[in-house]
Structures
1.
Amino acid sequence: MSAHAAQSFLAAPALTLAERAAGWAAAEWSRWPLWLPVAMGAGVLAYFGLRAEPGAAWMALPWPFLTLSLLLRRRYPLAGAALALVGAAALGFAAALFHARAAAPLAELPRTAVVVSGRVAAVDLLPEGRRVTLEAPRLADGPPLERAIRVRLRNNDPARPVPGDDLAVRALVRTPMPPAYPGAFDFQRAAFFSGLAGSGFALNPAEVTPRAGAPLFAGLRAAIEARVSAALPGETGAVSAALLTGSQSAIPAPALAALRDAGLAHLLSPSGLHVAIVIGLGFVTLRAGIAAIPWLALRVDSKGAAAVLGLALGGAYTLLTGAGVPMLRSFAMAALATLAILTGRRALSPRALALAAGVVLLFAPEALVGPSFQMSFGAVLALIAAAEGMRGLTRRLRAMGAPGRAALVVIGLMATSLILGAATTPFGLHHFGRLQLYGVAANAVAVPLTSFIVMPAGMLAAFLMPLGLEGPALAVMGWGVDATLLVGRTVAAWPGAAIAAPPIPAWGLGLFALGLCWLCLWGLPWRWAGVPMMAAGLLSGLVTTPPDILIAADGRMLAVSTPAGVLSERASGASRLTRESWLRSWGEEDAAPLPRSGEAPGVVCTPLSCLLRPRVDVAAAVLLRQPPRSVPAPRRGPAPPPPPVLAETGCGEAAVLISLEPIRGRCGDTPRVDRFSVWRDGSHAIWLAAAGAQILSDRANRGDRPWVPPAPVPRARAGAEPLAEAE
C-alpha cells in the first residue's frame, strides 16, 4: 500500500482501532528502518548504564535476532521488523563492549615527577606555550606505554617540536580527572576510549630530537597553524587556525567565552557546516570550470565530476581536522549524497542520516554519550524533517522567480537558525548548564560571514600555501573572523545573553531525544505525539532533586546549595574546573565562602564546625573543621601533626558528618564522608531529607568498569593517606 493510499484509507470514519493500526503500519512501513540506529543507540546506552562489565559472550547477542529477522521478513514482516530492532539494540550493546575490550588497559602513572619521552604525535598551540601528545611514551627507563600522554611545555620553552620528532621532558603527569560529582561528565571514560593515559605539565625545558617521517595530516596541521599564526597574530589567527585545522587550544579564554555566550561556539568546532562549505566550494568551482570550457562540458558529466572532487576535498578536510564525530557524520552523508548524484537519486534524505548514524555508532559507540554526537545528529535530523515539511512552500517560492528565490534564502536562514537552536539547546543545557538567549540573532549574521567569506578565503589560502601566496587570502579570512568575533562580543554583552540554568537530567534528555526522533522520523500525524515527549523531557528538571552537598574527589572542596545560593569550603589547591561543574549542576553563577563563624541562610558556623540545613524541613549535616594547632609550627624541621578532627564534635542532630580531613572516632551509627572516603571512592553527593541523608559516591554510581581506576590500597603507614580510626 502506498503512503497516499494508506492515508486515504485512514481517513475513512468507520475503521476499527485494529484497522487503523494496520493502516498506520502500512503508511509508515518505508520509514521503520530509520529507527534501526535509534535502537542501536539504546543498546549503547544500556552498555554504558551498567555497573559491572559484561562478559565477552554478550558480543554474540545480536546475531540470532538479526538472522531471524532476515528469515521472517517476507512471510512475517512485522515480526521481522521487531526482531531487527531488537537485533540493532543488541548490536549497539555489542559494539560498545567490543571497543571497550579492544582498548588498551589503564596505565598506572607515578605520583612524583618523571622523565617522559616518546614520539610527538600532535602539537597544540596554546594562548601561551605548546602542548604535545606523545605516542608510545616511556616513563623514565620503563617500557613504552600502550596509551598516549599529553604534556604542556613551559611557556618560555624555546623548543619547537613538530609531529614526528622525539621529545623528552621531566614532567608531572596525572591520570584524567574523575567526574566532578556522581553523574557528571566522565573524563576518564572519554580518555579511555581515546587512548589517553594521562596529562601533565613540564618542569624543565624539553629536549627535542628531529626525526623524519611525521604523520601526514598531523604535520600538515602543524604547518598550517604556523603559517596562519604568522600571518594573523593574536586571537584572529587562533580562530582562523581552528577553522582550518580543528584545534581550538590557542584561542584565548575571553574570545571563547564571548562566542559561547552568543551561541556561536559551534562555528569553532569543525562540523557539518564546515565540511558542507568545503565540499560545496569544490563542487561549484569545478562545475563552473567545466562549464566555462564548451568542448569539455559536452564530454564530461560536470555534476558528477564536481561531486567527486567536492567529496575528496571534504575527506581531506575531515582528516586534517582530526575526524571528529560531526565531521564523520557529515562526510558519511556527503559520500551518500555523491553516490545519489552519480546514480540520479535524491541526495539528502533521512535514510542517509540514519546510515551515517549507524556507521558512527558501530565504529565509535562512545561518541553517543558526548555532546558532539548528540547536537550534530539532532540538528541535522531536525533540519531534514523541516525540509520535508516545507517542500510545498519551497516549490511555490521557487516558482515566483527571483523575488521568490530571494525570499527563500531569507526564510531559509531564519528557519535554519530557529530549528538548530530548538533542536540543540536541550543538549547544550544538559552538558553545559547554560542558555544562550540570542543565538538566533548572532547566527543570522555570523553563519553567512563564515559561509561566504571566512571559509572560502581560508580554503583558498590553504591551496595557495605551497606557493607562498596565501597572504591576501588570509587577510580576507582575518577580516571575516574579526567581524564574527565582533558579532559574538556584541551579542554576548546584551543583557541576559547567557544565563545559568539547572541541567536537564540524563533521563529527561533521553526522553527529549526520543520525542525528537518520533516527531522527525514518522510521516503521519501521529508524529506530533513526539511534542509532548519533548516537553516532558525539557520539564524533567522540575521533578529531579539535585544534591544538597557535594564533596570533591581530592578532598579539597565541598559546597552546599541553599535557597539563597551556594556556599563552599575550599582548601589550597582546589580544582577550579570542579567548582565550575558544581555551579553548572545547580544553575548558579558563583559561590560564597562558608563563614568562619556566624550564620548565613541555611548554615550556622563556628571555627570548629558548621551545621548545614539548607531547608527547614530536612535533617542537618555537620561539617567538622580542622582545629587550630595548640603551638605554632617551627620555622625549621618537621611540623607536628595537626590536631585530629573528632567525630564527637558533631554528635547530636547530625544526619551525616562531613569533613575535608579524616574524621577520628565514632558518633553512633551516624554516617560520615571525610577525606578518606573521597580518596577511596571519589566525589560524593548528599541529599538531605526529613528522615536522614542519602549518600552516593562516584564509585558506587559508576561501578566496576574498565575506565574506572581500582580502589586505592593504602601503602606503608608512613606514606599513606591518613586513615580514620574505624579503618
Note: The mean pLDDT is 84.
2.
Amino acid sequence: MHNRSVCAVSTAVLALLAVPALSQEAAPGGAPEVGATVNAGKPASAVTRERLSAFAQTLPTSDREDYDLVQRGFIATVADGKLRNPDGQVVGDLDSDAFFSQASPDTVNPSLWRNAQLLQKHGLFKVAERIYQIRGFSISNMTVIVGDTGYIVVDPGYDAEAYTGMKLVYEHLGKKPVTGVIYTHSHTDHYSGVRAVISDEEVAARHVPVIAPEGFIKEILGEAVIAGPAMIRRAAFQFGFGLPVTATGNVNLGLGPQIKPVEAQPGQVPATPRARLPIIPNHDIKQTGETLTIDGLRFEFQMAANTEAPAEMFFYLPELKALCLAEDANGTLHNALPARGALVRDTKSWSNALTEAISRYGGRTEVLFTSHFWPRWEQEKIVDYLGNQRDAYEYLHDQSVRLMNDGLTGPEIARTLQYPDSLAAKWYNHEYYGTLSHNSRAVYQRYMGYYDGNPANLDPMTLTEGANHYIDALGGDAHVLALAKAAIDKGDNRWAVELLNKLVFADPKNRNAQLVLADLYEQLAYQAESATWRNGYLEAAVELRRGPLEPKRASPFAGLQGLPTDLLLDTIAVRLVPERAKGVKLAFTIVDPATGKRQIVQVRNSVLIHEEADAPLGGAPILKLSAAQFFAELTGDGHSILGSDDYALVRRFAGLFDGPLGNFPIVTP
C-alpha cells in the first residue's frame, strides 16, 4: 500500500440548522406517535383520501420479498433502545415498533409508509460470513468486515450510529481493534462518525489504512464547506429536521429512518446528526481494477466517479463473493439533483457504472450490500436487481435527452416522462427519495443549463417583482385568494400553489394567504410518495404558519478552524463583501514556518486571489504564520503578530468578510 501526503483538515462540528417544530394537537384517530413533540396537523382532506386510495390500487402489494430481506441475518439491537453519542448522551429513541406496526394512516402515502416500516428495522445484522451491518440507527448503513486481526469499517455514518453500532459489534462479535476504514463516497452520512470508531492518533500510530476514492476531500470541502451554509438550510426542508416523527409529520427520510428525539418537549427540535469532517484518507483509489489486501482480505475496487457522488467507488471481496455498490444501487429511485442542492449528477455515468459492475462482478457475486437499505442474496436475483436499477437510470437519461432534443423544456419533460410498467412495478424504483420529476429536470440542466432558450427568460423578474404585477393584473389580493380556494375545491393543486405562492410574495402580511397555502402544502405532503417532497411541504407549512425565524449571520470564520491555509482562503473568498472591498488593494505572502510553503494573497477588484508560489510577492509584506496562527489572527484571537504593522494588515483584511445567513426564509419573502 502506498501513502500520500495529505493536509490536516478541520474536525470542527459543522452546525446543522434546524427549524423548531410547530406544536399542535393530537394525531387524528389517536394513532400512537413517535416522540413527545406532537405535530398532528390537520386531517387528510377528502381529495387526499381519494387520491391515496386510488394510488394504493396501483401498488404491487403481493410482492413482500423486502419484508423477508430486511429481517434476514438479524442478531440483536440496543437493549434499552437508546442511541448514544460517544460522550454517552442519549440523542435518539429507536423504539418505534408501535408507531409503524399500525396500518397506513390517511395522512401518509401508503407506499412511503411501507418504506418507513421497512427502514425502521434496526440493529446488528449478519450479511454473510465475516460481513455485518449496522442498520436503522441513522439514514445510512455502517458495514463491519471481520479481518484476520480486527474490524474493517465501511462508511461510519454519524457519531451516535458509529458509537452505538460498534458497541453492539464488540458485544456480539468480540472486542478487536479497527484495522481499516473505507469511505465509499464523499457524503456526510458516510464519514462523519469515523472518530467514534477510531482516533486520528490511533490511525497514525498503528498505520491503519484509511481508504477513499480520488477527489474525496476536495468534493467534501466544495459541498460541505464552501456551499455548506445554503445547502444546510435547504437540507432542513429535504430531511425535515424541524419535524417530529408523527403520522402528520416526518415518517422517514426516504433512504433511511428519522430517529425520534428523546424526552422532546413541544417546540423542541428532534436530535440531528453531527456533521464532522473525516479523518483524512492515507490511500486514494484512483483507477478501476486496483486491489488492496487489508487485514488479510483482498479488495478489488471499481471507480464510480460522477455518479451518486462526484467521488465514489465500489469494491468486491472475491474470497467472500460479496459486492458493495456504495450508494449507486438502492431500494428507491435516487436523486440526480437533491432538493438540498449539489452538483448535478451524471445519470449516464451512473448507468454505465452499474453496467460495468454487472459485467465485472455479476457472475461471481452471491451477496450484494450497499450504504442504504438491506442486502440482496443469490447471484441471479442480484443481477436482475442491478439490471433493473441500471435500466431505470438509463431510461431516465435517454428519454429526458430525447424529449430535450424534441424541444421540450425541463418542466415540460418532467410533466411528460413516466417509467414503463416493467420498471415502475419494482418497489426499488419507486420515488421515496428521488423523483422522475426532479431527476428529468436535472438531466436537462446538466446538458442545457437553467435557461430554457426562450428570450422572455433571459432577464426575468424576481418572484416578488413578478408577484406584485401578477396580483394586480388578476384584480387584487381578495380575488386571487378566492381563485386559489376555488382551485383547491376542484383539486387543481398546482394552480392553487401558483396563485397562493405569488400572493404570499406580493403581500407578506396577508396571513389568510399564508395559512391557506400552509394547509394546501400539508395535504400535498400527505399525498407524496417521496419523503423528500413530504418533508419539504411540511417544513413549508411550518414556516408559513409560524413565520420565518430571524436570520442571523455567523462569524465569517466560524467552523473553519484547522483548515490548511490554501483551503481556508478558498472558503473565505466566497464570503468577501464587495462593498467593503471596493477600491481596496491588499497584497501579502503567508509563509508557513514549519514547511516553508508560501501563499501569495491579493485583494483586487473586490475579489480574493491566492496561489502557492516558490518566492514571496515582491514588495509585499511577509507573514510568517502557520495555518492555525493565521486563522487565530483572522478571528482576533492570535498573538503572533500583535502590535505590529502585520497585525493591522490582517485586521484590515479580516474586516472585508462576512459570515453566511442562517435560517433565511424559503417560502416567504
Note: The CA atoms of residues 367 and 377 lie 5 Å apart.
